[in-house]
């Protein structure tokens, strides 16, 4: 299905930000003379062949090929690896997008979903707003997203293949921007600048895309979450790197083997207080930070971290394994600062002033 004219926000050149003109060959910038192809209805702004995904690339391609025959959900049911039972809920559960109730979100909202992946958040939000623009950098994932939206009859969704640092949209195009599992990876997209600076540039550019009164949603890990103290691997592929000073983490990732990025440590996450400072420096206001339980990728419960009682209560509700119950019992006596320090991940909202 194709969106009716005027529903979707316009596209702009990611280099000069001039509005793009559509022709037989794709999209063209009349200001800087750059052109961008469109295939299968997807504008493509990054033609390189990198891959990142929850399953290996050949497996992802097999799921995509099967989805064209039997439908995306049946293909996922047949071919998702038995070793990853969590993936079914991850790609199918519309409840993952219930955070919309905490955002300036309504029937006339235009939403940007950065790092849209398989399209779980996109497809869950599309029936409740005017449009969703889903940006994904990986070819197989953006193709799956496009196929899924077509099969579900969602006419108000546009899939775009683009990187995150130069989103191809003019200023004030969206009411809400989603960044679920995105901000921590932004530093890897520009090796020529320190990761913190890359993240701040990125957030300032995203802020320019948001209309006055709009907002952002960020789902992300806590730099000092309790699982990291117990030896869980950071995005570097190694344990404890997020807990170390950045220079020590870079030395560790440069010297030790891992399944994550080699070289300097670039996947920066922050504490409760660090995210507040970061968003404030980038011009956002009304920052609200919630404990996302069990995690930001499965946010069944969001507990505000401005007081301790809601977090203590919800920890007791979600602590099913025996060790989890013991940790929750201890958390029931923890001061608010300790809860902010040790909760595993955050759901963050912030606004752009009117």
Give the second-level CATH assignment, the architecture.
3-Layer(aba) Sandwich
Rg calc: 20 Å
Distance between the termini: 35 Å
Order of helices and strands: EEEEEHHHEHEHEEHEHHHEEHHHE
CATH topology heading: Rossmann fold
The major sheet is characterized as: 8 strands, mixed
Range of helix content: 25-40%
Number of domains: 1
Q: Helical element count?
A: 12
Describe it.
The protein has one domain: Rossmann fold, CATH 3.40.50. The mean pLDDT is 90. It is α/β, with parallel strands linked by helices and 354 residues long. The longest helix is centred in the middle third of the chain and has 15 residues, at 195-209. The chain has helices spanning 57-70, 72-79, 86-92, 120-125, 139-151, 195-209, 226-229, 246-255, 272-281, 309-318, 322-331, 336-342, and strands spanning 21-23, 26-28, 35-36, 38-39, 42-43, 110-114, 131-136, 157-161, 174-180, 210-221, 285-295, 298-304, 345-351. The strands form three sheets. It has an eight-stranded mixed β-sheet with strand order 8-7-6-9-10-13-11-12. A three-stranded antiparallel β-sheet has the order 1-2-3, with no helix packed on it. α1 runs parallel beside α5 and α10 (309-318) packs antiparallel against α11.
Labels describing this entry:
12 helices; three-stranded antiparallel beta sheet; eight-stranded mixed beta sheet; 32% helix; 13 strands; Rossmann fold; alpha/beta; 354 residues
Provide the fold topology.
Layout: E1 21-23, E2 26-28, E3 35-36, E4 38-39, E5 42-43, H1 57-70, H2 72-79, H3 86-92, E6 110-114, H4 120-125, E7 131-136, H5 139-151, E8 157-161, E9 174-180, H6 195-209, E10 210-221, H7 226-229, H8 246-255, H9 272-281, E11 285-295, E12 298-304, H10 309-318, H11 322-331, H12 336-342, E13 345-351
Helix pairs in contact: 1-2, 1-5, 10-11
